[in-house]
Amino acid sequence: MAVTADLLPVGIAASDCLTPFGDAAATTRALREGRVALQLQPVLGADGGDLVPLALLGPMQESVPARWLRDARRLADRIGGGGWGTPRRPVVVTSSNFGVGSLHAFMRDGDPRHLRHGVPFASVDLLRAECGWGEHVTVFSHACVSAHLGLLHAARLLHAGRADQVLAFSFDFVSAFVAGGFHSLKILNGVMPAPYAVRETGAIGLGDGAAYAVLTRAAAPLRITAQALYNEMHHFTGNEPAGAGFATCAHALAPATRGRRVWIKGHGTGTLEAGRLEAEAFARVFPDAPLVSWKGSLGHTLGSCGLVELALAVAMLTDGEGTIAGTVGGAAPSFTDDVALASFAAAGFDAAVLASNAFGGAHAALVLSPAGG
Fold this sequence. Notes:
The protein has helices spanning 24-32, 67-76, 100-109, 120-131, 146-159, 176-184, 244-257, 273-285, 295-298, 305-318, and strands spanning 4-6, 10-18, 39-42, 51-55, 91-94, 137-140, 165-172, 206-207, 209-216, 222-231, 262-265, 291-292, 323-324, 344-345, 351-358, 362-370. The protein is an alpha/beta fold. The protein has two domains: 12-216, 3-Layer(aba) Sandwich (Peroxisomal Thiolase, Chain A, domain 1); 220-370, Thiolase/Chalcone synthase (Peroxisomal Thiolase, Chain A, domain 1). A hairpin with a 3-residue loop joins strand 15 and strand 16 (362-370).
């Protein structure tokens, strides 16, 4: 599938996220301090199983109402303003998980109450009703690039003059069904993830996460100045062996960063092949740009990672501390010399590239720049 690259600058009027550490401010502090939210826990929650690294906001047990609803609503209450879900202030909701844990719970115990939030449209309708949003809500889901799809759609709505502001909202909460699926692939195992580290065994962690960003064409301190999407359509789970997909997506953004000094927030889950291909592609396209991943602390928040990590990047660039968190959980040797294991000063950088990758060779990235950059 051909690359889609859009130079559609939009401002970020507001953003925040929710992780096991708390909101974006609390999570940013934890990452800068090198703290790890992941803990070895039973892969099937109350049903036991092997111990795997999970970062959870609460017990991984499906409930009625869904366990994610309280926390998603808690984050939504922070957005402020009104009129969301109306024609001029539409909402874009993204996820790769939605309420699939509830659907699994229904299949297991037959309680029909789980069906109220067991499939994507039902979980989004429930969230919409809880938050008081109108009917103008669009849903996107494409594995771990889901949030990027929503952000690109939001930018296009703004530039087409179809909206004044767009709320992008994403949530993914780990269920036994999801954790068990990754465990069956043997990439969620008893080993803690070490993003971009050269070692014998690759491993990921999974984490609960939700985030939002309010996008606008009005002036804002930070803007998304370019976005790129590319899908290799190579394999159900794997990437093209030479890393062509990573390189194609990175090259698509290179013109938008020409003449700038950038740092890179990579996908960096802790897998070996994908981690190496990603690190090498970025080193070729953006030489000497520090590369970081925060999934060694927070785990992989699945389809929401692009928005969770955007909110964290925004917080790091605007909270006055002037420090970008390094690759928590990483270790030397790394796949490339550009992997930043320690935190570093944001001064001197005038753009950031934020990337996410997904099963089957789907790639997405965006450029985050200060206003006027």
